[in-house]
Structures are given as C-alpha cells and as structure tokens.
Amino acid sequence: MALPLANLPAILRAAGISVVEYPGWSTRTQTDGPFAPKGVIWHHDASPPGPTPSEPAYMADPAHNGAQCWVDTRGVWTVIAAGRMWHAGLGAGWGRIAANQGNRDAIGIETDHTVGEAWPAALLDSLRIGTAAICRAYGWDPATSLCGHKEYALGRKPDPDRLDMAAERRTVVALITNPKQSQEDDVVTPQDIDAIARAAAQATAPATVNELMSRGIGLGVPVEDHSLPFSGAVKYLDANASATREIAARIEGLVQQLIAAVSAHGVPVSAIDYDKLAAAVNDDAARRMEN
Fold first, then answer.
1. Is the whole-model pTM more than 0.70?
2. Distance of CA 147 to the CA centre of its chain
3. What structural domains and CATH numbers belong to the chain?
4. Calpha distance 187→209 (Å, rounded)
5. Three-state DSSP class for 111?
6. Before 160, cis peptide (omega within 30)?
7. Residues 142, 131: contact at Cβ < 8 Å?
8. Contact 110, 69 (CB under 8 A)
C-alpha cells in the first residue's frame, strides 16, 4: 500500500517547484509508530553556512533523524520519504499537531540553513510556495497546521532561525488563495525601473527633458527601443502612484540641474557628452533609489 505522501512530488511540481526524488523515497518510513499527517513543521538543518548538498543522504539513513523534505539554497526540494520520519521529537505541540506527536502528525520540511545565516531569497520563496501547495492539496489551514520547530518544541529548539512564523503563516495563507509559481512576478527589476522612469518622464517632463531622454540619458537605452519589459512597470505604477511621481520629479529636477550647469559655462545642450552624462545620471539615480 502506498505511503501517505506518495503524491508529494506531483503536488510540488504542479506548483512550479523543482523536485529531486531521493532514491528509495516512496517506500522510506520509520516503523516506530503511525504517520497520519495533519500539518507541517518547518526546520533548519543546522548545517555549516552555505550549500550543504550532503544533507539528504544523512537524513535518508534510517539511523539518523531526518525529515520528509529538504529545501536547498536554490529553492530545489528533495523528497526523502513518503512515510514517517524522525524530525520533531518531544514538544508541547502546536495547533493541530499534538504534544510529543510531531513525527506522527506533521510533515517535516528541513532547509539548508543554520542559526545566524541569511536566508536565501530563492529558498524562502520556494519554501513558502511549496508549503502552500501542500496545505492546499491536503485541505489544511496554515493558521492551525503550520508551525516552526521552535514553536512546537518551545524552549528546546531555535529553528527556523529568525523567521516570524506568524507572518509566514499569513504569507502561506495568501499563496493558497492566490498561488504563484515564482518570485519573478513580484520583483521590480532594474529594467522595470527604467521603464517606469521613461514613462513617467515622458508624461510629466518638459520638452528639454524629453530631448535628453530620447538620447538615453538615465536609461542606458534610447527611448525608441521598445524591448524593455513593461509588465512589472505597469504593476508598480498601479500600486505605487506616489513613488512614480517621485521618480518623475527626480528625473526632471536632475536633468534641469545638469542643463543649468552646462549652460552656465556656455555649453549648448547639443554639445553635451551624452555617454558621460548618462553614466553620471545613472550613478546618481542609483544612490537616490537606495535612499
């Protein structure tokens, strides 16, 4: 008979997750008790900082503690077992996960992380998306079915370090309602900022600014080039009208200052070294954006 998590790789792949099936995963289970999962416990594996690709082999050894899943620093999931694993140990319990029954009641998800280490964005993004997919597939509410090891074993375990689990539960709930398959949809890239700046400047700046914009000042590309991705810019514009106005104002003010400076020295706009000016504008814009 198939073990409870026999469909887990398919669930994760349907959510756009990269999955490695560790040899023997579909029949791997500890035999010291039942496994009837009703929730998820997040862990970190306390491995040395940086990638530790040997962790799945360690956890797959039946003599060792280990979890059903492990997520590496790139966000790739390794499915290690479809059955019961030793990942939770003793604890007061949390939500639907009973006291001292974490190995019975919960899927363990280990992460390639340790105390004090920065969380790789790809790891966290994949962890959240994959957990949302699991909860959606099994009909679990993260508000009562998702916890950190540090919550289940309060005072005994610190993992996952530096994650606000209340906030993480809200994120996973939102992903169940509005699933996404990658972090890229919500990231505003430098190309998106260029598109925002170009659109804002063209809409609000005077003719002199448009003249400079058409030569690529502050953009690195001529305004006639329509190859830049605008999807992220549109999302950003819709959600951040005040930021868009600020971008436009910065562009207008900066270029007007440059025009005034060169004019004061008797240099016509047509004689400006646009390559050097573009580099100066881009450097200044980058510093302003950081502030």
1. no
2. 19
3. 8-185 (3.40.80.10), 188-290 (no CATH)
4. 28
5. strand
6. yes
7. yes
8. yes
